[in-house]
Design goal:
It is a single chain. This protein is globular. Helix 2 packs across helix 5. Strand 4 and strand 5 form a beta hairpin. It is of the alpha+beta class and 171 residues long. The strands form 2 sheets. It has a 5-stranded antiparallel sheet with strand order 6-5-4-3-7. Strands 1-2 form a two-stranded antiparallel sheet. It has one domain.
């Protein structure tokens, strides 16, 4: 399949290798448009890839939302985003204060904590990858089209942030 332009108006069919929490494997994605399909893909299954795309562009630290397993009570990651320079948590729905996560996530683990992952090696340990995994690892997870779609979402989310997040001064 050859895709030369990923426009916001044209849906792209994306078939993922592992089902999301709701069992979905086929998506009609409009790159850069945060709708129900995008939220399902990047909130319930592939948030970690979107976080990698943003991190790859910005170098910002990862943020891991964690909940506990029952009955063992061990912490495990359940959602991934990045921290902006101002400390906001950025994921598919946009940037918001960490304190707002308990009311704005599509799911609400109880108890919940948010871990700051400074490096890609920390990310790898958290998601169960070898610590020497290259950052480009995520490029192979959804194929060429999925990588381009994910990058488009990352660009869209970054473009929506205020210039102050990038150290720019408004004219």
């Amino acid at each position: 399949m050859s895709v030369t332009l990923l426009g916001r108006s044209s849906p792209v069919e994306l078939v993922v290798p592992l089902a999301t929490e709701h069992g979905q494997t086929v998506f009609q994605i409009r790159p850069g448009v945060v709708d129900a399909e995008a939220r399902e893909l990047y909130q319930w299954g592939y948030c970690h890839l979107l976080a990698c795309a943003i991190h790859e562009t910005t170098g910002w630290s990862f943020g891991s939302v964690e909940g506990t397993t029952r009955p063992a009570g061990r912490w495990r990651w359940i959602h991934m985003g990045v921290f902006t320079p101002s400390g906001a948590f950025l994921d598919v729905v946009g940037a918001r204060p960490v304190a707002a996560l308990s009311t704005t996530l599509a799911f609400r683990p109880d108890p919940m904590r948010v871990q700051h992952l400074s490096t890609f090696a920390d990310f790898c340990r958290t998601v169960g990858l070898a610590v020497d995994t290259p950052l480009s690892w995520w490029h192979s997870q959804l194929g060429e089209v999925g990588t381009r779609v994910t990058r488009t979402f990352a660009e869209h989310l970054l473009a929506a942030l205020p210039a102050a997040e990038f150290g720019e001064v408004a004219a």
